[in-house]
Amino acid sequence: MKKHVRCFKVWKADRYSFIHEWGTREMKILIGQPKLEPALNQLERELRSNPDVDIVLYPEGYLNQNVEEACRLAATYETMIVSGHRRLDEKPKDRAIIMNKAGDIVLEKAKYTPATTVEETGWVIGTLLCDELVRQGFRKESDGQVHLIMHSIGVGMFSEEQYAEWLEEARQIAIAQQCVIMGTSHADGAYRDSDISIPIAYCIAPSGDILFESRDDTRTRIVDLKSVRTGQDWMAADLNISVFCLE
């Protein structure tokens, strides 16, 4: 796998001209579209090949029951992992999960429950699992800024109409929350054995600008975020976003 082959989109806020005066915080996020697999081989390959990223975003259910192994990988490669796992004896079985760079679970949320957030290295991060996007949106029980919403999707879209609907719903959440939202599905699999499956990945700026939308293109992306402020001092106007594609 080659490194960053090209930067194909840059989004700069109006106030970014002040960034060198204030100093910046940076966050590099890898958005992967693996194939369904019983182990975590693709995740480990991407962690090993991209040691400079801070977070890996993977699809809903990718981890299956391999949470302990995912924690080990997060600690070994000192990289946060945001994905989903399953508890097959519970309903709903799907859970969103975030592991920090030490391999500790810092967020775990059952599907269709209110959104929660976690702050890591000054960035406040929340999650969405698959159709939570359209069924409930990003519904929080507490006030407060969120910087990044990570949307783990199970499989590809079953129609062009669904693809357009989900992208627009994500765009509206980015605008409403004044945050970055990004999502990814598996490269394979289909919804209820549908004949159509369109793998999807995307990243949307707080303005609602679509920085990339990956329609049936499962190459890995790197999103590089730079911000003058983080924590509760966050302002979307202080953000710069670059997106790179890996070959």
Quote the average pLDDT.
Answer: 88
The number of distinct helices, counting runs of at least 4 residues, comes to 5
- Widest sheet: strand ordering: 1-14-13-2-3-4-5-6
What are the low-pLDDT stretches, counting only 5+ consecutive residues below 50? 14-22
Share in β-strands: 25-35%
Main β-sheet description? 8 strands, mixed
- Strand pairing plus helix content: what structural class? alpha/beta
Order of SSEs, N→C?
EHEHEHEEEEEHEHEEEEE
Helix fraction by DSSP (H/I, runs of at least 4): 10-25%
Radius of gyration: 17 Å
SSE order and pairing:
Blueprint: E1 4-12, H1 19-22, E2 25-31, H2 41-49, E3 55-57, H3 67-77, E4 80-86, E5 94-99, E6 105-110, E7 117-120, E8 123-129, H4 132-135, E9 148-152, H5 160-177, E10 180-184, E11 200-204, E12 210-215, E13 221-227, E14 239-246
Parallel strand pairs: 2-3, 3-4, 8-9, 9-10
Antiparallel strand pairs: 1-14, 2-13, 4-5, 5-6, 7-8, 10-11, 11-12, 13-14
Would you summarize the structure shown here?
The protein is of the alpha/beta class and 247 residues long. It is built from five helices and 14 strands.
Structure in words:
By secondary structure, the chain is α/β, with parallel strands linked by helices. Helices cover 19% and strands 34% of the residues. The chain has helices spanning 19-22, 41-49, 67-77, 132-135, 160-177; strands at residues 4-12, 25-31, 55-57, 80-86, 94-99, 105-110, 117-120, 123-129, 148-152, 180-184, 200-204, 210-215, 221-227, 239-246. The protein has an eight-stranded mixed β-sheet with strand order 1-14-13-2-3-4-5-6, covered by helices on one side. A six-stranded mixed β-sheet has the order 7-8-9-10-11-12, with helices on one face. Helix 3 (67-77) links the parallel strand 3 (55-57) and strand 4. The chain starts with a strand and ends with a strand. Mean pLDDT is 88; it is low at 14-22.
